[in-house]
Every structure is written in C-alpha cells, then in structure tokens.
Inverse folding.
C-alpha cells in the first residue's frame, strides 16, 4: 500500500521567514512559491502549505469576521532519529521551544514554534528490539 501525500496549511506572518525556517531546520523542500503570500513545501509524504493572512482564498476572513492567524496548539509531528541531537542543533540556531524533552510510553517529544508561532512536535519513537 503506498502512502498518498497529506497536506497541512499553516497561517504565517512572513512566508519567506517560514520557508527559511522549514528548509534550514526541518528538512523541507520548496515545491512551489508562486506569490509572496503563499508557498508549498514538501517533506516525504507531507505537503506544508504556508499562507499569509489575507493572501489567496485560505487567508480570507470568515463571514463572521474572524481572520486566519498563526499560532495555537494543533501541530504537525515530525519523527526524528535522535531527538536530543536535533534539539541541541536547533537550540544553537536560536529556535524557540515551548518545553523540554518529555518521555512517554511511545517515545520522547518536544514542542517548538516556527517564526509565526505555529506549533511543531518533534518525536523520537521508542526503539523496540525485534
């Protein structure tokens, strides 16, 4: 069974800053960047759509007046082979974390923010011996 691409949209204040963050620190590649207010990045089967508020249809206000804005607690989870090493590299680069590494039954995780304040979870699963 092949996996299909899954798309997630994040509202960001600065598309260029978001592109730099995701490509430099989290191994995304630019798929398309047709306008200043929009870009699509890819990492494996994940396509991350970056939208500036007010840009394109996805950035428009709702009928009740609410406007798309960055931030919140919904997040993408990116699996990494060595969480401690990745966190150390990101901290050296000045990336802002919401917490320290925590451990649970399934593995270790931590939360960080992109430049617009959108949450990203880095996750290292428990390695079970076969």
């Amino acid at each position: 069974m092949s996996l299909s691409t899954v798309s997630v949209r994040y509202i960001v204040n600065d598309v260029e800053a978001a592109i730099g963050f995701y490509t430099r620190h989290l191994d995304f590649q630019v798929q398309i960047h047709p306008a200043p207010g929009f870009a699509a990045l890819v990492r494996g089967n994940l396509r991350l759509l970056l939208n500036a508020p007010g840009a394109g249809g996805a950035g428009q206000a709702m009928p009740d007046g609410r406007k798309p804005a960055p931030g919140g607690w919904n997040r993408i989870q990116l699996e990494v082979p060595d969480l401690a090493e990745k966190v150390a590299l990101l901290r050296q680069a000045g990336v802002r974390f919401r917490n320290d590494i925590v451990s649970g039954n399934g593995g270790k995780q931590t939360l960080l923010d992109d430049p617009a304040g959108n949450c990203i979870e880095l996750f290292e699963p428990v390695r079970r011996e076969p």
Remarks:
- Residues 15-25 form the longest helix (11 residues).
- Strands lie at 6-11, 29-35, 38-43, 46-51, 75-79, 102-103, 107-113, 119-125.
- The chain has one domain: 6-57+70-125.
